[in-house]
Write a structure and sequence with these properties.
Chain lengths: 429, 134
Protein backbone atom coordinates (compact mmCIF):
# COMPACT_ATOMS: atom_id res chain seq x y z
CA UNK A 1 0.00 0.00 0.00
CA UNK A 2 1.29 3.48 -0.71
CA UNK A 3 2.51 5.27 2.36
CA UNK A 4 0.71 8.35 1.15
CA UNK A 5 -2.67 7.38 2.52
CA UNK A 6 -1.54 7.26 6.13
CA UNK A 7 1.04 10.03 5.94
CA UNK A 8 -1.36 12.42 4.28
CA UNK A 9 -3.91 12.22 7.05
CA UNK A 10 -2.32 14.57 9.64
CA UNK A 11 -1.43 17.34 7.19
CA UNK A 12 -4.50 18.35 5.29
CA UNK A 13 -4.45 17.45 1.60
CA UNK A 14 -4.20 20.60 -0.38
CA UNK A 15 -5.63 19.57 -3.69
CA UNK A 16 -7.82 16.55 -2.97
CA UNK A 17 -8.05 13.55 -5.24
CA UNK A 18 -8.54 14.40 -8.90
CA UNK A 19 -11.47 12.51 -10.41
CA UNK A 20 -14.55 13.00 -12.54
CA UNK A 21 -16.50 13.54 -9.32
CA UNK A 22 -14.08 16.27 -8.23
CA UNK A 23 -14.62 18.02 -11.57
CA UNK A 24 -18.38 17.75 -11.18
CA UNK A 25 -18.22 19.04 -7.60
CA UNK A 26 -16.02 21.96 -8.57
CA UNK A 27 -18.23 22.78 -11.54
CA UNK A 28 -21.09 23.21 -9.10
CA UNK A 29 -19.11 25.78 -7.08
CA UNK A 30 -17.48 27.63 -9.97
CA UNK A 31 -14.10 25.92 -9.49
CA UNK A 32 -13.35 27.84 -6.30
CA UNK A 33 -12.38 24.73 -4.35
CA UNK A 34 -9.24 23.63 -6.18
CA UNK A 35 -6.33 23.84 -3.77
CA UNK A 36 -2.67 24.21 -4.63
CA UNK A 37 -1.13 21.06 -5.99
CA UNK A 38 1.80 21.18 -3.55
CA UNK A 39 2.62 23.15 -0.40
CA UNK A 40 5.35 25.79 -0.07
CA UNK A 41 6.57 25.31 3.52
CA UNK A 42 9.37 27.11 5.32
CA UNK A 43 12.39 24.81 5.57
CA UNK A 44 12.99 23.04 8.87
CA UNK A 45 16.50 22.92 10.31
CA UNK A 46 16.81 19.16 9.91
CA UNK A 47 15.59 16.35 7.63
CA UNK A 48 16.56 12.74 7.37
CA UNK A 49 17.13 13.03 3.61
CA UNK A 50 17.79 16.18 1.63
CA UNK A 51 17.43 15.95 -2.16
CA UNK A 52 19.04 18.81 -4.11
CA UNK A 53 17.15 19.53 -7.30
CA UNK A 54 13.38 19.56 -7.77
CA UNK A 55 13.41 18.42 -11.36
CA UNK A 56 11.89 15.16 -12.47
CA UNK A 57 14.73 12.97 -11.19
CA UNK A 58 14.95 14.65 -7.76
CA UNK A 59 11.19 14.56 -7.21
CA UNK A 60 10.95 10.96 -8.41
CA UNK A 61 13.75 10.05 -5.99
CA UNK A 62 11.79 11.63 -3.14
CA UNK A 63 8.54 10.01 -4.25
CA UNK A 64 9.94 6.47 -4.32
CA UNK A 65 11.76 7.06 -1.02
CA UNK A 66 8.31 7.56 0.46
CA UNK A 67 6.39 5.04 -1.62
CA UNK A 68 8.89 2.14 -1.55
CA UNK A 69 10.79 2.73 1.69
CA UNK A 70 8.42 4.73 3.93
CA UNK A 71 10.93 7.58 4.29
CA UNK A 72 8.95 10.81 4.27
CA UNK A 73 11.21 13.06 6.38
CA UNK A 74 12.52 14.48 3.11
CA UNK A 75 13.19 17.95 1.76
CA UNK A 76 13.62 18.63 -1.94
CA UNK A 77 15.58 21.86 -2.45
CA UNK A 78 15.30 23.78 -5.70
CA UNK A 79 17.38 26.79 -6.69
CA UNK A 80 14.84 28.12 -9.14
CA UNK A 81 11.32 26.95 -9.77
CA UNK A 82 10.07 23.39 -9.82
CA UNK A 83 10.82 21.59 -13.07
CA UNK A 84 12.44 24.72 -14.56
CA UNK A 85 15.65 23.02 -15.64
CA UNK A 86 16.01 20.21 -18.12
CA UNK A 87 12.68 18.68 -17.06
CA UNK A 88 10.94 21.61 -18.74
CA UNK A 89 13.39 21.92 -21.63
CA UNK A 90 13.50 18.50 -23.29
CA UNK A 91 11.65 17.10 -26.29
CA UNK A 92 9.60 14.67 -24.09
CA UNK A 93 10.64 11.50 -25.90
CA UNK A 94 10.29 8.18 -24.06
CA UNK A 95 11.89 4.95 -25.28
CA UNK A 96 13.91 2.02 -23.94
CA UNK A 97 15.55 0.54 -27.07
CA UNK A 98 19.11 0.61 -25.75
CA UNK A 99 21.93 -1.69 -26.73
CA UNK A 100 23.55 -2.52 -23.40
CA UNK A 101 21.79 -4.68 -20.79
CA UNK A 102 22.14 -2.32 -17.79
CA UNK A 103 20.71 0.54 -19.88
CA UNK A 104 17.82 -1.55 -21.16
CA UNK A 105 17.01 -2.63 -17.61
CA UNK A 106 16.74 0.85 -16.11
CA UNK A 107 15.19 2.56 -19.16
CA UNK A 108 12.60 -0.19 -19.59
CA UNK A 109 11.77 -0.05 -15.87
CA UNK A 110 11.22 3.63 -16.47
CA UNK A 111 8.98 3.02 -19.47
CA UNK A 112 6.94 0.49 -17.50
CA UNK A 113 6.48 3.02 -14.69
CA UNK A 114 5.47 5.68 -17.23
CA UNK A 115 2.74 3.38 -18.52
CA UNK A 116 0.87 3.57 -15.21
CA UNK A 117 2.26 6.85 -13.89
CA UNK A 118 -0.91 8.88 -14.35
CA UNK A 119 -2.84 6.37 -12.24
CA UNK A 120 -0.04 6.01 -9.66
CA UNK A 121 0.24 9.76 -9.16
CA UNK A 122 -3.44 10.58 -9.70
CA UNK A 123 -2.14 13.22 -12.11
CA UNK A 124 -2.46 13.09 -15.88
CA UNK A 125 1.05 13.07 -17.32
CA UNK A 126 -0.43 12.61 -20.81
CA UNK A 127 1.74 9.59 -21.57
CA UNK A 128 1.25 8.89 -25.26
CA UNK A 129 2.79 5.58 -26.44
CA UNK A 130 2.48 6.57 -30.08
CA UNK A 131 5.48 4.57 -31.26
CA UNK A 132 9.02 5.64 -31.99
CA UNK A 133 11.18 5.06 -35.04
CA UNK A 134 14.95 5.49 -35.16
CA UNK A 135 15.84 5.92 -38.82
CA UNK A 136 18.78 4.13 -40.36
CA UNK A 137 20.15 6.36 -43.12
CA UNK A 138 23.58 4.81 -43.60
CA UNK A 139 24.74 1.20 -43.93
CA UNK A 140 26.53 1.62 -40.61
CA UNK A 141 23.26 2.50 -38.91
CA UNK A 142 21.46 -0.41 -40.57
CA UNK A 143 23.93 -2.82 -39.02
CA UNK A 144 23.87 -0.96 -35.69
CA UNK A 145 20.08 -0.98 -35.35
CA UNK A 146 19.71 -4.59 -36.50
CA UNK A 147 22.13 -5.45 -33.74
CA UNK A 148 20.15 -3.34 -31.24
CA UNK A 149 16.91 -5.06 -32.31
CA UNK A 150 18.54 -8.44 -31.61
CA UNK A 151 19.88 -7.21 -28.27
CA UNK A 152 16.41 -5.92 -27.36
CA UNK A 153 14.91 -9.35 -28.11
CA UNK A 154 17.32 -10.91 -25.63
CA UNK A 155 16.53 -8.20 -23.06
CA UNK A 156 12.79 -8.67 -23.41
CA UNK A 157 12.29 -5.17 -24.83
CA UNK A 158 9.85 -5.27 -27.71
CA UNK A 159 11.39 -3.57 -30.75
CA UNK A 160 11.65 -4.60 -34.38
CA UNK A 161 13.40 -3.71 -37.58
CA UNK A 162 11.07 -2.23 -40.19
CA UNK A 163 11.65 -1.57 -43.88
CA UNK A 164 11.34 1.75 -45.74
CA UNK A 165 7.86 0.91 -47.08
CA UNK A 166 6.49 0.46 -43.58
CA UNK A 167 8.20 3.67 -42.45
CA UNK A 168 6.54 5.55 -45.32
CA UNK A 169 3.19 4.09 -44.29
CA UNK A 170 3.71 5.17 -40.66
CA UNK A 171 5.19 8.57 -41.54
CA UNK A 172 3.64 9.86 -44.78
CA UNK A 173 5.52 13.19 -44.62
CA UNK A 174 8.93 11.49 -44.79
CA UNK A 175 11.12 11.63 -47.89
CA UNK A 176 12.27 8.02 -48.24
CA UNK A 177 14.54 8.51 -51.26
CA UNK A 178 16.30 11.64 -50.01
CA UNK A 179 19.28 12.19 -52.30
CA UNK A 180 21.88 12.39 -49.58
CA UNK A 181 20.38 10.37 -46.72
CA UNK A 182 17.93 7.77 -48.10
CA UNK A 183 15.90 5.96 -45.45
CA UNK A 184 17.14 2.37 -45.43
CA UNK A 185 14.97 1.11 -42.60
CA UNK A 186 14.38 1.77 -38.94
CA UNK A 187 14.25 0.46 -35.40
CA UNK A 188 10.63 0.63 -34.27
CA UNK A 189 9.54 0.57 -30.64
CA UNK A 190 5.76 0.62 -30.54
CA UNK A 191 5.65 1.23 -26.78
CA UNK A 192 7.79 4.36 -27.08
CA UNK A 193 6.26 7.81 -27.29
CA UNK A 194 6.01 11.06 -25.39
CA UNK A 195 4.57 12.52 -22.19
CA UNK A 196 3.85 16.01 -20.92
CA UNK A 197 7.17 16.96 -19.29
CA UNK A 198 5.89 19.60 -16.85
CA UNK A 199 3.11 17.30 -15.69
CA UNK A 200 5.64 14.64 -14.69
CA UNK A 201 7.35 17.11 -12.34
CA UNK A 202 4.04 18.50 -11.10
CA UNK A 203 2.55 15.08 -10.50
CA UNK A 204 5.54 13.85 -8.51
CA UNK A 205 5.66 17.14 -6.55
CA UNK A 206 2.00 16.86 -5.60
CA UNK A 207 2.39 13.25 -4.50
CA UNK A 208 5.51 14.09 -2.45
CA UNK A 209 3.78 17.03 -0.82
CA UNK A 210 0.81 14.82 0.05
CA UNK A 211 3.21 12.42 1.80
CA UNK A 212 4.34 15.30 4.02
CA UNK A 213 7.63 15.98 2.25
CA UNK A 214 8.85 19.56 1.92
CA UNK A 215 9.45 20.97 -1.54
CA UNK A 216 11.38 24.20 -1.09
CA UNK A 217 11.74 26.36 -4.17
CA UNK A 218 13.99 29.44 -4.51
CA UNK A 219 16.46 27.76 -2.19
CA UNK A 220 19.97 27.61 -3.64
CA UNK A 221 22.53 25.34 -2.00
CA UNK A 222 25.73 27.32 -1.35
CA UNK A 223 27.82 24.75 0.51
CA UNK A 224 27.97 21.17 1.73
CA UNK A 225 29.16 20.77 5.32
CA UNK A 226 31.10 17.57 5.94
CA UNK A 227 32.97 16.27 8.99
CA UNK A 228 35.08 13.11 9.27
CA UNK A 229 34.24 12.24 5.67
CA UNK A 230 30.49 12.35 6.38
CA UNK A 231 27.83 14.81 5.33
CA UNK A 232 26.35 16.91 8.17
CA UNK A 233 24.37 19.68 6.55
CA UNK A 234 23.88 21.90 3.53
CA UNK A 235 24.14 25.69 3.63
CA UNK A 236 21.42 27.29 1.56
CA UNK A 237 20.16 30.73 0.67
CA UNK A 238 17.38 30.01 3.19
CA UNK A 239 19.57 28.86 6.04
CA UNK A 240 21.49 25.79 7.17
CA UNK A 241 19.70 22.44 6.85
CA UNK A 242 21.08 19.36 8.58
CA UNK A 243 20.59 15.92 7.10
CA UNK A 244 21.65 12.29 7.48
CA UNK A 245 21.75 11.68 3.77
CA UNK A 246 22.16 13.98 0.81
CA UNK A 247 21.13 13.17 -2.74
CA UNK A 248 22.60 15.42 -5.45
CA UNK A 249 20.28 15.28 -8.45
CA UNK A 250 21.07 18.45 -10.35
CA UNK A 251 21.98 17.41 -13.93
CA UNK A 252 23.99 20.25 -15.51
CA UNK A 253 25.22 21.62 -12.17
CA UNK A 254 26.44 18.27 -10.81
CA UNK A 255 30.11 19.30 -11.02
CA UNK A 256 29.38 22.49 -9.07
CA UNK A 257 27.63 20.62 -6.25
CA UNK A 258 30.26 17.86 -6.23
CA UNK A 259 32.87 20.60 -5.89
CA UNK A 260 31.08 21.88 -2.78
CA UNK A 261 31.19 18.36 -1.34
CA UNK A 262 34.88 18.06 -2.22
CA UNK A 263 35.09 15.61 -5.13
CA UNK A 264 35.19 15.70 -8.91
CA UNK A 265 32.91 13.97 -11.38
CA UNK A 266 33.62 12.65 -14.88
CA UNK A 267 31.08 15.12 -16.22
CA UNK A 268 31.15 18.01 -18.65
CA UNK A 269 28.24 20.42 -18.99
CA UNK A 270 27.17 21.30 -22.51
CA UNK A 271 24.19 23.08 -23.99
CA UNK A 272 21.56 21.13 -25.89
CA UNK A 273 18.93 22.98 -27.86
CA UNK A 274 15.42 22.34 -29.05
CA UNK A 275 12.86 24.32 -31.01
CA UNK A 276 9.18 24.18 -31.93
CA UNK A 277 7.32 25.29 -35.00
CA UNK A 278 4.00 27.04 -35.30
CA UNK A 279 1.09 24.65 -34.68
CA UNK A 280 -0.20 22.81 -37.73
CA UNK A 281 -2.82 20.13 -38.35
CA UNK A 282 -1.95 16.57 -37.30
CA UNK A 283 0.55 15.16 -39.78
CA UNK A 284 2.76 12.75 -37.87
CA UNK A 285 1.58 10.45 -35.08
CA UNK A 286 4.88 8.77 -34.23
CA UNK A 287 8.20 10.04 -32.91
CA UNK A 288 11.01 9.96 -35.47
CA UNK A 289 14.68 10.15 -34.61
CA UNK A 290 17.22 10.65 -37.38
CA UNK A 291 20.59 10.26 -35.73
CA UNK A 292 22.70 10.57 -38.85
CA UNK A 293 21.44 14.07 -39.44
CA UNK A 294 21.36 14.90 -35.70
CA UNK A 295 17.66 15.60 -35.43
CA UNK A 296 14.53 14.22 -33.87
CA UNK A 297 10.99 15.18 -34.45
CA UNK A 298 7.53 14.72 -32.99
CA UNK A 299 4.24 16.59 -33.14
CA UNK A 300 2.86 17.88 -29.86
CA UNK A 301 -0.79 17.70 -28.90
CA UNK A 302 -1.00 21.41 -29.73
CA UNK A 303 0.19 20.68 -33.27
CA UNK A 304 3.69 22.13 -32.97
CA UNK A 305 6.52 20.19 -34.56
CA UNK A 306 8.99 19.65 -31.71
CA UNK A 307 12.59 19.43 -32.97
CA UNK A 308 15.71 18.52 -31.06
CA UNK A 309 19.27 18.59 -32.25
CA UNK A 310 22.80 17.89 -31.08
CA UNK A 311 24.82 19.49 -28.31
CA UNK A 312 27.36 22.25 -28.62
CA UNK A 313 30.93 21.04 -28.29
CA UNK A 314 32.19 23.31 -25.53
CA UNK A 315 31.48 23.66 -21.80
CA UNK A 316 28.60 26.03 -21.27
CA UNK A 317 26.28 26.93 -18.39
CA UNK A 318 24.30 29.66 -20.14
CA UNK A 319 21.23 27.69 -21.26
CA UNK A 320 21.75 29.43 -24.62
CA UNK A 321 23.18 27.38 -27.42
CA UNK A 322 24.96 28.31 -30.60
CA UNK A 323 22.92 29.51 -33.52
CA UNK A 324 24.87 27.34 -35.93
CA UNK A 325 23.54 24.16 -34.29
CA UNK A 326 19.95 25.21 -34.86
CA UNK A 327 20.78 25.84 -38.48
CA UNK A 328 22.62 22.52 -38.76
CA UNK A 329 19.73 20.57 -37.25
CA UNK A 330 17.04 22.18 -39.37
CA UNK A 331 19.08 22.11 -42.57
CA UNK A 332 19.61 18.38 -42.34
CA UNK A 333 16.09 17.52 -41.15
CA UNK A 334 14.61 19.33 -44.13
CA UNK A 335 16.23 16.76 -46.43
CA UNK A 336 14.25 14.00 -44.71
CA UNK A 337 11.11 16.08 -43.99
CA UNK A 338 10.81 18.59 -46.87
CA UNK A 339 7.53 20.02 -45.55
CA UNK A 340 9.40 21.49 -42.56
CA UNK A 341 10.93 24.12 -44.84
CA UNK A 342 7.57 25.90 -45.05
CA UNK A 343 7.10 26.15 -41.27
CA UNK A 344 7.88 29.14 -39.10
CA UNK A 345 9.72 28.34 -35.91
CA UNK A 346 8.09 29.76 -32.80
CA UNK A 347 10.54 29.23 -29.99
CA UNK A 348 14.06 27.97 -29.42
CA UNK A 349 15.71 27.26 -26.07
CA UNK A 350 18.61 25.44 -24.45
CA UNK A 351 19.29 23.33 -21.40
CA UNK A 352 22.55 22.29 -19.73
CA UNK A 353 23.17 18.58 -20.13
CA UNK A 354 25.65 16.63 -18.01
CA UNK A 355 27.67 14.40 -20.33
CA UNK A 356 29.74 11.41 -19.25
CA UNK A 357 32.36 9.82 -21.47
CA UNK A 358 30.33 6.67 -22.11
CA UNK A 359 27.01 8.55 -22.43
CA UNK A 360 25.53 6.53 -19.56
CA UNK A 361 24.31 7.93 -16.25
CA UNK A 362 25.92 7.84 -12.82
CA UNK A 363 23.91 6.57 -9.84
CA UNK A 364 26.46 6.16 -7.14
CA UNK A 365 27.81 6.49 -3.67
CA UNK A 366 30.56 9.11 -3.44
CA UNK A 367 33.82 9.64 -1.52
CA UNK A 368 31.73 11.47 1.11
CA UNK A 369 29.68 9.11 3.25
CA UNK A 370 25.98 9.86 3.11
CA UNK A 371 26.26 11.76 -0.19
CA UNK A 372 24.79 10.12 -3.29
CA UNK A 373 24.79 11.38 -6.86
CA UNK A 374 22.35 10.82 -9.68
CA UNK A 375 23.62 12.56 -12.79
CA UNK A 376 25.12 12.05 -16.22
CA UNK A 377 21.79 11.43 -17.97
CA UNK A 378 23.10 13.81 -20.59
CA UNK A 379 20.77 14.29 -23.51
CA UNK A 380 18.38 11.50 -22.51
CA UNK A 381 17.15 12.18 -18.99
CA UNK A 382 13.44 12.75 -19.39
CA UNK A 383 12.59 9.22 -20.46
CA UNK A 384 14.47 7.89 -17.43
CA UNK A 385 12.76 9.93 -14.71
CA UNK A 386 10.63 7.21 -13.04
CA UNK A 387 13.25 4.46 -13.32
CA UNK A 388 16.01 6.80 -12.18
CA UNK A 389 13.99 7.86 -9.14
CA UNK A 390 13.15 4.23 -8.38
CA UNK A 391 16.82 3.15 -8.46
CA UNK A 392 18.07 6.28 -6.68
CA UNK A 393 15.57 5.85 -3.82
CA UNK A 394 16.86 2.30 -3.38
CA UNK A 395 20.44 3.59 -3.32
CA UNK A 396 19.72 6.36 -0.81
CA UNK A 397 17.53 4.24 1.47
CA UNK A 398 19.90 1.26 1.67
CA UNK A 399 23.19 3.10 1.25
CA UNK A 400 24.26 0.77 -1.56
CA UNK A 401 23.03 0.35 -5.13
CA UNK A 402 20.27 -2.09 -5.95
CA UNK A 403 20.14 -4.20 -9.11
CA UNK A 404 19.11 -1.34 -11.41
CA UNK A 405 21.85 1.06 -10.28
CA UNK A 406 24.68 -1.42 -9.64
CA UNK A 407 26.33 -1.04 -13.05
CA UNK A 408 26.15 2.79 -13.00
CA UNK A 409 28.57 3.47 -10.12
CA UNK A 410 31.41 5.99 -10.30
CA UNK A 411 33.86 3.09 -9.93
CA UNK A 412 33.17 1.99 -13.50
CA UNK A 413 35.50 4.73 -14.75
CA UNK A 414 38.42 3.51 -12.65
CA UNK A 415 37.72 -0.07 -13.67
CA UNK A 416 37.23 0.66 -17.36
CA UNK A 417 33.83 -1.00 -17.21
CA UNK A 418 31.96 1.43 -19.42
CA UNK A 419 28.37 1.16 -20.51
CA UNK A 420 29.00 2.43 -23.97
CA UNK A 421 25.84 3.91 -25.41
CA UNK A 422 27.37 6.61 -27.57
CA UNK A 423 27.56 4.17 -30.48
CA UNK A 424 24.20 2.62 -29.79
CA UNK A 425 22.35 5.90 -29.52
CA UNK A 426 24.30 8.13 -31.86
CA UNK A 427 24.04 11.62 -30.48
CA UNK A 428 20.34 11.90 -30.00
CA UNK A 429 18.43 10.48 -27.08
CA UNK B 1 28.59 33.42 -32.23
CA UNK B 2 31.65 32.65 -30.15
CA UNK B 3 34.75 34.30 -31.62
CA UNK B 4 38.30 33.38 -30.59
CA UNK B 5 41.47 34.94 -31.94
CA UNK B 6 44.01 32.34 -32.97
CA UNK B 7 47.28 33.16 -31.16
CA UNK B 8 49.33 31.88 -34.11
CA UNK B 9 47.73 33.35 -37.21
CA UNK B 10 45.87 36.14 -35.34
CA UNK B 11 42.66 35.49 -37.23
CA UNK B 12 39.48 36.28 -35.30
CA UNK B 13 37.93 32.87 -35.93
CA UNK B 14 34.25 32.18 -35.54
CA UNK B 15 33.02 29.08 -33.77
CA UNK B 16 32.28 27.29 -37.06
CA UNK B 17 35.96 27.61 -37.96
CA UNK B 18 37.10 26.02 -34.71
CA UNK B 19 36.92 22.61 -33.05
CA UNK B 20 36.60 22.45 -29.25
CA UNK B 21 38.99 20.15 -27.42
CA UNK B 22 37.95 20.15 -23.77
CA UNK B 23 39.77 21.13 -20.59
CA UNK B 24 43.33 22.45 -20.91
CA UNK B 25 46.42 22.07 -18.71
CA UNK B 26 45.78 18.42 -17.89
CA UNK B 27 48.88 16.63 -16.70
CA UNK B 28 49.21 13.39 -18.58
CA UNK B 29 49.48 10.27 -16.45
CA UNK B 30 50.34 7.11 -18.33
CA UNK B 31 51.78 3.69 -17.56
CA UNK B 32 53.53 3.65 -14.21
CA UNK B 33 51.24 6.18 -12.59
CA UNK B 34 48.77 5.28 -9.87
CA UNK B 35 45.26 4.17 -10.80
CA UNK B 36 43.83 7.28 -9.14
CA UNK B 37 46.07 9.65 -11.12
CA UNK B 38 45.32 7.84 -14.37
CA UNK B 39 41.56 7.94 -13.76
CA UNK B 40 41.68 11.62 -12.79
CA UNK B 41 43.66 12.41 -15.94
CA UNK B 42 41.26 10.51 -18.20
CA UNK B 43 37.91 11.40 -16.63
CA UNK B 44 38.09 13.88 -13.73
CA UNK B 45 37.12 17.31 -14.99
CA UNK B 46 36.78 20.66 -13.26
CA UNK B 47 33.80 21.62 -15.42
CA UNK B 48 33.55 24.97 -13.64
CA UNK B 49 30.68 27.39 -13.77
CA UNK B 50 32.86 30.40 -14.44
CA UNK B 51 36.48 30.74 -15.59
CA UNK B 52 37.50 27.78 -17.76
CA UNK B 53 40.78 27.05 -19.52
CA UNK B 54 40.22 24.98 -22.61
CA UNK B 55 41.76 23.61 -25.78
CA UNK B 56 40.64 24.64 -29.23
CA UNK B 57 41.86 23.81 -32.69
CA UNK B 58 41.83 26.30 -35.52
CA UNK B 59 40.43 23.57 -37.73
CA UNK B 60 39.48 25.49 -40.85
CA UNK B 61 42.38 27.91 -40.55
CA UNK B 62 45.98 27.25 -39.66
CA UNK B 63 45.02 23.89 -38.15
CA UNK B 64 46.96 24.39 -34.93
CA UNK B 65 45.89 23.77 -31.33
CA UNK B 66 45.71 26.70 -28.94
CA UNK B 67 44.29 27.42 -25.49
CA UNK B 68 41.63 29.88 -24.42
CA UNK B 69 40.38 31.32 -21.15
CA UNK B 70 36.62 31.75 -21.19
CA UNK B 71 33.76 32.15 -18.72
CA UNK B 72 31.26 29.31 -19.10
CA UNK B 73 28.49 31.37 -17.50
CA UNK B 74 28.78 34.55 -19.57
CA UNK B 75 30.79 33.25 -22.58
CA UNK B 76 33.18 36.18 -22.04
CA UNK B 77 36.56 35.40 -23.58
CA UNK B 78 39.59 36.57 -21.55
CA UNK B 79 42.14 35.70 -24.20
CA UNK B 80 43.89 32.96 -26.13
CA UNK B 81 47.45 31.66 -25.89
CA UNK B 82 49.68 28.93 -27.37
CA UNK B 83 49.04 25.29 -26.56
CA UNK B 84 52.59 24.82 -25.26
CA UNK B 85 51.96 26.99 -22.18
CA UNK B 86 52.20 24.96 -18.99
CA UNK B 87 50.15 27.56 -17.11
CA UNK B 88 47.98 30.43 -18.32
CA UNK B 89 50.31 33.36 -19.02
CA UNK B 90 50.30 36.53 -16.98
CA UNK B 91 48.33 38.69 -19.41
CA UNK B 92 45.53 36.14 -19.33
CA UNK B 93 45.56 36.00 -15.54
CA UNK B 94 45.51 39.80 -15.40
CA UNK B 95 42.59 39.96 -17.84
CA UNK B 96 40.61 37.48 -15.72
CA UNK B 97 41.43 39.29 -12.48
CA UNK B 98 40.35 42.59 -13.96
CA UNK B 99 36.99 41.12 -14.92
CA UNK B 100 36.54 38.77 -11.92
CA UNK B 101 38.04 40.42 -8.80
CA UNK B 102 37.15 37.45 -6.61
CA UNK B 103 38.86 34.90 -8.84
CA UNK B 104 42.20 33.33 -7.85
CA UNK B 105 44.40 30.90 -9.81
CA UNK B 106 44.21 27.34 -8.46
CA UNK B 107 47.62 26.25 -9.73
CA UNK B 108 50.99 26.67 -8.07
CA UNK B 109 52.87 29.22 -10.16
CA UNK B 110 56.19 28.62 -8.40
CA UNK B 111 56.53 24.89 -8.91
CA UNK B 112 56.23 24.73 -12.70
CA UNK B 113 59.03 24.70 -15.23
CA UNK B 114 57.35 27.41 -17.24
CA UNK B 115 56.65 30.48 -15.18
CA UNK B 116 53.93 32.76 -16.53
CA UNK B 117 55.12 35.05 -19.24
CA UNK B 118 58.18 33.02 -20.28
CA UNK B 119 58.86 29.81 -22.15
CA UNK B 120 56.97 29.38 -25.36
CA UNK B 121 54.71 32.29 -24.73
CA UNK B 122 55.22 35.03 -27.33
CA UNK B 123 54.90 38.69 -26.50
CA UNK B 124 51.55 39.34 -24.85
CA UNK B 125 48.95 39.95 -27.45
CA UNK B 126 45.80 40.37 -25.43
CA UNK B 127 42.57 40.01 -27.29
CA UNK B 128 39.99 42.64 -26.42
CA UNK B 129 37.83 41.49 -23.53
CA UNK B 130 34.24 41.21 -24.65
CA UNK B 131 31.19 39.07 -24.60
CA UNK B 132 31.64 37.01 -27.70
CA UNK B 133 28.15 35.57 -27.84
CA UNK B 134 26.28 37.73 -30.29
Amino acid sequence: MPASTSAAAPSARRSGRYSVFAIAREAMRLHRGWGRAWASPEPRSRYKVVVIGAGGHGLATAFYLGRNFGITDVAVLEKGWLGGGNTGRNTTIIRSNYLQDPSAAIYDKSLQLYETLSQDLNFNVMFSPRGLIMLAQTEHEVRGYRRTANANHLQGVATRWIDPAEIKRLVPIINIDGPRYPVLGGLFQERGGTARHDAVAWGYARACSDMGMHIIENCAVTGVDTADGRVRAVDTSRGRIECDKLAIVVAGHSSVLAGMAGFRLPIESLTLQALVSEPIKPCMDVVVMANTVHGYLSQSDKGEMVIGGGTDGFNNYTQRGSWQHVEETVRSLIETFPMLSRLKMLRQWGGIVDMTGDRSPILSTTPVEGVFVNCGWGTGGFKAIPGSGWAMADLVANGRPGPLAAAFGLNRFAEGRFIDESVAAGVAH
Amino acid sequence: MLTLTCPYCHVAAEETELAPGGEAHLTRHGPGSTDEAFEAYLFGRRNPKGVHFERWRHLYGCGRWFLAARDTMTLQVFGTYPAQSKYPPRHIVDAIRAARPGWAPDWDETSGDSAPGVGNDPAPNPTPTRDSFV
